[in-house]
Amino acid sequence: MREDIIEKAYAKINISLDVTARRDDGYHDMAMVMQTVSLCDDVRLGFTDGSRIFARTNLPFIPSDERNLAVRAAKKFFEAAGEPERGLCIRIDKRIPGGAGMAGGSTDAAAVLRGLNRAFGNQFGVERLEELGAEVGSDVAFCVRGGTMLARGRGELLTPLPPLPDCVFVICKPQFSISTPELFRKLDQVSLRRHPDTVGIVSALERANLGDICRRMYNVFEDVNDRRMRTVTAIKNVLIDHGALGAVMTGTGSAVFGLYDDADAARKTFDALRREWRSTAMAKIMPRIEV
Ligand code: C5P
Prior knowledge:
The protein is about 35% helix and about 25% strand. It is α+β, with helices and mostly antiparallel strands. The longest helix is centred in the middle third of the chain and has 16 residues, at about 105-120. It starts with a strand and ends in a 7-residue tail after the last strand. The relative contact order is 0.18. It binds cytidine-5'-monophosphate (C5P).
């Protein structure tokens, strides 16, 4: 088992995000329609002769120790498998922007769980892997399989949904990042004026009606009292003005995406946004991973 294990770690976006309750354990109950997209990090696992589990990335500010969810996921895996911890180097080529609401850290952690599970003879089924993921972070469970899913609870109660009809995403992340706990705190200070029609989105997915899905895309975090949401709105307007069927912030931001059924319009939007916002990408839908 000395050769490297290679996994793609795909980003997620939120077609919709609702917060339905504040819980006693400090978390919030959510209802989110999540979608995996082709923007991804590359994760490579290599066993070493040492005993340390550490991460190496192409970005200097990303921690190599347990502050990195990928390292925590590896430790969690060894503990659950009853294996003594092994020396492991987790090499991550990051392309997914951080602090964007795209599950960049969570998807790396999920890739580590999938990769180690393969290396150790698939000893865990997908449900157990998702449970382990949820113990590492709320979005990790979704990222184990990805695709199109309804996520409830903390984000770990997953129901697979029919895939989103074929479309192209333009995803734009402003220079600033938004901290997830900070935005949840701000959300607790406002009473929400609007909620997404999650049931309507699920029904539109079942009918494969892209227009009906896009009309219903909404994220309650856009309603918080935060100056940065002005930039989010400005980017949404550019996306819509360039022909997006719908545009919304993903997760706790700061990335915003537009959804297009016309690849040329998406390309033109990408070119326009990229002039101002370097962290702009085009992506397509990714299907669920068979684990
Ligand atoms: O689970 P995770 O560590 O990713 O969550 C980070 C923080 O985000 C939590 O400590 C909590 O403040 C907030 N959170 C929440 N409700 C959720 C998910 C996250 O309040 N469903």
